[in-house]
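Blackboard transcription, Thursday session:
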Amino acid sequence: MSFQCPRCVIDTNVLSDFYECGCLPLIWQLFPGGVWIDPYVSEELKVKYQLDVQHALAHLQLPYTFTNDYEPEHYAEMQEIKERRRALKHADISCVIQARLQQATCLSADNAVYKTCQERGIKVSRHGGILEEAV
Amino acid sequence: MNIQEYIAKRLLEARIEAGLSVVAVADAIGVVRQTYSKFEQAQGVPSVTQLIALCKLYNKPIGYFYDDDEGTFRFAMRADNPAMLDTTLRNALISKLKNIYAVEEAANARQPEDLPNSLPIFTAREEDLLRVEDKAAEERRRLGIGDATCVGDIVALLESFDIRVIPFSHQAEDGLVSGFSAFSDKYGTAIYVNNHPSVSVERQIFSICHEYAHIIFHRDDYTGPAKTYKTRGKSVSPEEKVANHFAACFLIPEHALRKQFFMQGGGWAYEETVLRLKSIYRVSFACMVDRLSKCRLITPKNAAWLWGITRHKGWHREEPNPIGEPLSYKGRLLVLSRKAWEAGTASESFLSDLLELNRKELSVLLEKWYADQEAGEDVFSMPQVRN
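(Written on the board underneath:)
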């Protein structure tokens, strides 16, 4: 079995929860393959939690990656998910898409995001599962 | 139409709607004109950050450019100043209706619309108002409240018949608007009511019934060009008179009022008489005086005396003995939210927007739901309100 360096995509709730309790660096330690934060998640954090992700993570010296240039088919997939699950937000959906794109684990404690990932065969972990995932 | 063409079409429509040039938009999102033009010609798609910037620039919800078409929204606007329904308020109201539709779908609670029969009445002659009164009685029967009692929870009542009653809080600089109603071919019918602290509960109840009347009598107005009605002063639009008359008849059926009035001793109505009656029917003092007068239960002299008291004591501006308990606009949404959350079809972030809860309030709610879940309680408790 080839060695895999785990990578993850963080959703709004997990990011804000870990940030609030001051243990955000833990995620970076557990996922050395890279941490992705979608621009929609950054926007949601800014609007709803007044958290400037770029500034906060720079301050903590935690580098993250984001996909800014989606292909048309990714937008089509977002549209398709939104049409089937109207009660998901764009930040939720983009995490699902991003996780599949990066072949990363989607870190989300949200029932709906969790279920959507599972339906699409995307690896997903809740708070407790984050540690389990890294073992 | 593929997604690239779809995004291009929406970008073009939004720019035209905003009245901006290609150069201005390109500058605003930090690209050259040619690059932006390519987006509108479906020769490329903007990046996520550009799309977010464009949503902000055009005052559109996030995801607007690739979300499926929301159909047509028609607002029946009744105000002396139609500018009160500005783009920001309009978008907020549409967004609320879309979110309710989404949670209904997520909770598997969508039902076919059960709107009352339309009865177009655009004049307010005496014979028209008699028809309006008959229709109010018919609606009370249809909604199962008969003609002998007060309406009770008007929000729950209308929602059980697929009319969404959606609150918004808005204090315009140049006055207050009580409500709107809207039809959307995709998302259904909604009554919007202003629950700003300066709007009494009595006025909110009356506004809901008033808007309901427009849905019955002026439904054609929602499909034609948007209309504005005169709501105040001597030249009040006949449509407004019709809606006001319906609301009064619906909230205070003559038969029931007559009985209650005579139970208070009949004859001359004192302010105490009116206060007692208004608390029974959950209407304003002014509304009750008007109704007593129109039902000819009090003499013109008695009515003039009561109007004098109303003006003298400022009760036309500030309600005496107001209803203390606010209307519950979230009852059904909470049930639907919980069902959707349990089913894993609505995200927590979505629910916080829908229920207008901040992070802490949402956490408290979710903790309770988790605790209930762990306790193995039956959480699927949709009330069966339809007969």
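Lecturer's comment: The longest helix of chain B spans residues 87-106.
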